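Hello again, I could really use a second opinion on something today. My current little project is about how a certain protein chain folds up. You're getting the sequence in one-letter code plus the fold written as tokens. Here's the protein in full, and shout if anything looks odd to you:
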Amino acid sequence: MSWYGIDAVDRAFSRTRKALFEPFDFWKWVKLAIIIFFVGGIGYNYEGSGTNYRTGSEDLGNNFPNIEPGRISDLPSGTSGFGLNYVQSISPLAIIAAVIVFLLILALIFSYISSVMEFVFVESLVKNEVFFWAYSKKFMGKGFNLLLVRLAIALIFLVLFALALLPFIPIILKESSDFSFPLLIGGLFWFFAAVILLALLGAVVNSFLSLAIPLVIYRETGILSAFRMVYGNFRKSWQQILVYWFIRFLLGIGVTILAVVLFGLLVLALIIAFLIIDGIVYFLFSTFISEPLNWILLIPFVIVELLLIFATLMLLSVPLAVFMKYHLLSFLEAWFADANIPFFDELPGGSETGIGTELSESISSGSELVESTPGGSESGGLESGESKSGELKPGESEADESAPVGSEKAEGAEI
């Protein structure tokens, strides 16, 4: 018995080499880097700075100008007292709520783009052709459905987390001066246990969802139907999935270590090179421009250098991300029968397990039965003793001809 998760490593290496280096296409790398950035590179923290600006009477001091009674100075001609009262009446909570809503909308937009890029990434690697805008337009609907499923899953996990903390809510709300150290330790243990269990469950669901995305494309089905297919196949061959998860865990550790080493060395080399360049530019500026202005002129150079470092790191991450995705696709191709993934290179041999195997066998056996039945096809009718004109041979009768037909039909009924 072969383990598909292990076999998929060699296929992933081979396909990564063919897709990225045979031949090398710089613009293909750039487009893949953009796709990878939107798929998994959106890690920004959409929170405020956390700084509270409070001004009391002691902070104002005597900074206000003297205002004579009945007269307001230094205000535009169109400004009225009603406008000032309206501005002052805006609650800080309303401003915070508006900012939170704006950030949530922005996060939803990026999440939708990430969901669409999931399909674009799979299609680009399977066909070994990257058409960014064409694939994005093609999978806008599927990406929206994936976004809805992810939001529903996130809501379910949030409810589960709230239910896990439900027993501690009365204890937290209870006002008591007594400090119970064992209760605190037990609460922390329960909290971390709930977080770990939900994290493991989320990893399993996310793995099933990742395996379902190619099925949505190439089986032409919905995301929930594809998820049920993956889960049904997991119930029949769960050993393969366990080995696959273990191999993915090891590959993830190896890829992370390799990325840290490569990224660290590259960033260090670029920083040293850019510091040398900035030092030369600074001395050139200092000979012609005064001290404050030359630092200001260095700001565009620093921004360009930071962008170059970021772009270089994204390009360097392309082979790692492509290899991991090819490993997933190669495993799915071997593990799930009738996955119908049209790879740019054909996989030698066929799948052994998976949903659809029994259905394919029944269909093939039924077609063989029809071919063996006289009259079922043109060749079958000729083998039963009929001539091309449909006449019987001498010495045969209609009853003799019908006898074997009936017997074969009876055998077909028993099958």
